[in-house]
Fold:
Amino acid sequence: MTPLIKPSVLIPKGLQIQQINHLTLFKFTDELGERMQILLDKKKAVA
Structure:
């Protein structure tokens, strides 16, 4: 069983923040995107 990780731990590692003009944009890193996809696949498999 995988130990639980607090979501706040993923924020510094999982988000890329970029300022363009007066906008602050963010995108998920590949690592966090893959983790989210794994969790989504698990959820679909159970349903």
